[in-house]
């Protein structure tokens, strides 16, 4: 019977390495040294060598890191680029969003009013409905879409052909 | 969802690793120690981001291994309260729902945080499981696990390690996320698309 879950606090490990010292020396210098968007973690894992094809066994990436990679690759962030995120941050300054809300939007990529509603706190009080619609349109334009939802959005994208072409020319 | 945490740790490097370059050996040791483990109030460690500083390199008398004080940054999984995360349904019973994202399984949606009003349709085969469904404008929307579920993080708790456990109890979960579905736009994605 296992008392300690495999993911338990590494107490025994620290004690083992510090057997000759009188005081435990595992201090957190800075608990929060910066938030990361899902895209940045995906980029970091990719730069270590994680990928979805069969060469993954040779890469210096642990199986638990692969689980994170698999989750991120089939979420909305798999097609994002640094430029699109920077573009989004520049354009959303006029809406006065909190950092947590910007992070949520980048990670989830809401494509409709009802999806952005739980992200922005007190939506009706802070922003008029035209502003919210503008924000949703800007998100759909700037952040690349999730590959699984391409079929659903194709139907509404007929009149938005020109902004997409502009983006493609810029790339 | 992810944060960087700067940690300082005193690490004992076993002698059989002396043939490797120092930073590789230290990175390997740190990975064995921290990867996929939960640190209370910091979250689940996903990966070593980088090593900032390696100091000291003492050899204590009577020991063949050298001891280093290392400063490094870890990528921690620690969602903030109010974050929206997409997960899959693992199981559902009278206490609520259990969701999982592939690397983390202990996400619990208790009954009072399900969309209101919801009702449970018990599974005839297994008394403990059932399918929750939401009644809205006279229509039933079941949460059946066919597609992914969007939930908002309500709170995170780090229960202390128990001294004793009964034989049949579930393995201890050092980090538990409580989520809520009680808002527009939350719940299975197919409800809102």
UniProtKB/TrEMBL annotation, chain A:
- Cite a GO CC annotation: RNA polymerase III complex
**Residue ranges crossing the lipid bilayer per the database entry:** none
Q: Which Pfam families match?
A: RNA_pol_Rpb4 (PF03874)
Q: Which processes are annotated in GO (biological process)?
A: transcription initiation at RNA polymerase III promoter
SUPFAM superfamilies to which the protein is assigned, alphabetical: HRDC-like
Keywords, sorted A to Z: DNA-directed RNA polymerase, Nucleus, Transcription
Superkingdom of the source species: Eukaryota
Checking SMART domains in the record gives:
RPOL4c
One example of the protein's molecular function in GO is:
nucleotide binding
Q: Does the keyword Transmembrane helix apply?
A: no
Q: What family does this belong to?
A: Belongs to the eukaryotic RPC9 RNA polymerase subunit family.
Database matches in PANTHER family = CALCITONIN GENE-RELATED PEPTIDE-RECEPTOR COMPONENT PROTEIN, DNA-DIRECTED RNA POLYMERASE III SUBUNIT RPC9
Please state what the protein is called.
Answer: DNA-directed RNA polymerase III subunit RPC9
TrEMBL record, chain B:
Q: What's any one GO cellular component for it?
A: RNA polymerase III complex
Q: Which PANTHER family match?
A: DNA-DIRECTED RNA POLYMERASE II, III (PTHR12709), DNA-DIRECTED RNA POLYMERASE III SUBUNIT RPC8 (PTHR12709:SF1)
- Is Nucleus among the key words of this record? yes
RNA polymerase Rpb7-like N-terminal domain segment(s): 8-64
* GO BP term (any one): transcription initiation at RNA polymerase III promoter
The record's InterPro entries line, in alphabetical order, gives: NA-bd_OB-fold, RNA_pol_III_Rbc25, RNA_pol_Rpb7-like_N_sf, Rpb7-like, Rpb7-like_N
* Subcellular localization, as worded in the UniProt entry: Nucleus
Q: Which family does it belong to?
A: Belongs to the eukaryotic RPB7/RPC8 RNA polymerase subunit family.
**Residue ranges annotated for the RNA polymerase III subunit Rpc25 domain, each copy included:** 83-192
- Say what the protein does: DNA-dependent RNA polymerase which catalyzes the transcription of DNA into RNA using the four ribonucleoside triphosphates as substrates.
One family name in Pfam for this protein: SHS2_Rpb7-N
What is this protein called in UniProt? DNA-directed RNA polymerase subunit
